[in-house]
Amino acid sequence: MAEAGSLADRVKQQADIVRVLGEYVRLRKNGQNFTGLCPFHSEKTPSFAVHPVKQIYHCFGCGAGGDVFKFVMEMDKCDFMEAVRTVADKCGIALPKSRELSPEERREQQQRTALVELHREAAAFFARQLESTPEGKAARGYLADRGLDAEAIARFELGYAPSGGDALLRHLKTKYPEKLVELAGLASRDANGRPYDRFRRRIIFPISNESGKVVAFGGRALGDDLPKYLNSPETPIYVKSSVLYHLDRAKESIRAADAAILVEGYMDAIAVARAGISNVVASCGTSLTETQVKLLSRFTRRIIVNYDPDTAGQAATERSLAILLEHNCDVRVLALPGGKDPDTFIRSEGAAAYRKLLEGAPAYLDYLIGRARQFGLANAEQKLRAMNFLMPFVRRIPNALLRSEWASRMAQQLRVDEPVLREALRRAAAERRSEIKTQPALAGRGATPAERRLVQMLLEGNDFRERLGEEIRAHQLHLGLETEKILGVLLESCAAGAPPDATIVAPKLEEYDRRLLFEIAFESAAEASWEEAESCLEVLRRRKSEEELAAVQRQIEACAGSRSGEDAEELRALQARKLELRRRLASMSQ
Ligand SMILES: [Zn+2]
């Protein structure tokens, strides 16, 4: 992405967001903005706005928003670089050749290219070992026992890492510097500093990135060697948390089916794909990451999770499910009978049986309700226990409507008629609102005009922006405000000398704050002056002093009853502070 940074920037500066979005949405001029019907949710009156100066869009209905690239990524369901290319194309901007990269960018790019080549070479080496060596023959026997024939080996480009010690290294060294092999994570050094192969006596599963390039390897021990599974370490081309195994082969069918099956390991993904269900990916780890969910939700939001349901994996499964729910995914859970993993199940029961269970996979909360039933529902106490088990999951659903829908469904299924339990459920459904702020429309009702105005000023290219940021930071005036997080990231970006751009800071914010930021960015305002900034700051200073005064007053009351000498001294100090704050506040109101 580094080489894209400067390039994307240049494209963004030259592109006109109104023109690009206008090809997808009918936009009409409306004051300083353009508005139209939102392409991301269905509506009859326009709540989708495009800001031609700030070069951002925002939907006041569903909260979608960002810059021109984000829009194209979401509409075309493509990655960042594709979006840059699309925008450049639409605006007739010629993409520069690689020689225009800075020397450092070029070095990094060359290094990545070399790493990709080296991985291809290594994959071919592993494949040859599996195919045509005596050791490979034993490995093929092992795979055959697990139902993987020559066809499967070829299709998933499986390989074998021999036990020798440095066979791969010796092979790669004929073409690449030893340092690069180490950088790729394919060689380690022993205590004497002698390099040796990372993968030895293991079945090798090449791990590809989204565009199908091998960027890492997973190795399964052939014997009882530990660990059973060993992966490549992170490298300049492999960030574990942002790769999903098999996505490169699955993405088209995921898009077509508008659903993805999520399994845990390579063997599971391979088994499911071989059962004729190609829209399967593996997280290759115990828990799904945020980045993986974002990656996957570019293709679909309907996910069927088929993790190994053993108790050890349960916590990880629940974490993964929570991340999916928080990204508004429609989650179903497939728990295979007998606690089998997909690979074992398909081998013993067959593809048809798996398909059938897959089709009947219950929605996540129905699955949870099923588990809650195990607490028994004979009396109010058991029902309460079942509900206490379910409540935390309900609270994680970001959408309030959905949450209350689920609460009534739970009440029904658990046959909860007791008013007390009903009330507890109702409260749990309502609770999330304050807990994690993701109310849809009208975000930021609590943000005062002064703080909103300060956010705007920090988003503008005025000449006092840095001074303003410094003043807020020096006195920590943003703490406790509705816009605390927003101001926080703006102050950081200000201090770092970054240009005023909502889309630069937006990724650092949670959904609620991101929406609020965009809403504020769209509020129209006259050109700001330092005098106006100063008057907004005064509102914040006043608020801070008032809060401190209240805190001091509470401490005074707490101390007043005591007779100890220490407390008497503290009381005097508090009284003095109170007086000082009173004076300060009085001077402010002038
Ligand atoms: Zn919308």
Low-confidence stretches: 1-5, 432-444
Summarize the biggest pleated sheet. Answer: 5 strands, antiparallel
Question: What portion of the residues fall into strands of 2 or more residues?
Answer: 5-15%
Number of strands: 15
CATH hierarchy, class of the largest domain: Alpha Beta
Global Rg: 29 Å
Q: Helicity level, as a percent range?
A: 40-55%
Q: Which strand order does the major sheet show?
A: 1-2-3-4-5
Write the CATH homologous superfamily of the largest domain.
Answer: DNA primase, catalytic core, N-terminal domain
Principal-axis shape: globular
Hetero groups: zinc ion
Q: What is the CATH architecture descriptor of the largest domain?
A: Alpha-Beta Complex
Compute the number of structural domains. Answer: 6
Q: Can you describe this structure?
A:
There is one protein chain. It is built from 26 helices and 15 strands. By secondary structure, it is of the alpha+beta class. It has six domains: 98 residues, DNA Primase, Chain A, CATH 3.90.580; 136 residues, DNA primase, catalytic core, N-terminal domain (DNA primase DNAg catalytic core, N-terminal domain); 120 residues, Dna Topoisomerase Vi A Subunit, Chain: A, domain 2; 68 residues, no CATH class; 80 residues; 50 residues. The strands form four sheets. It has a five-stranded antiparallel sheet with strand order 1-2-3-4-5, with helices on both faces. It has a four-stranded antiparallel sheet with strand order 6-9-10-11, covered by helices on one side. The two termini are 54 Å apart. The N terminus is likely disordered. The site of zinc ion has 8 residues, from loops.
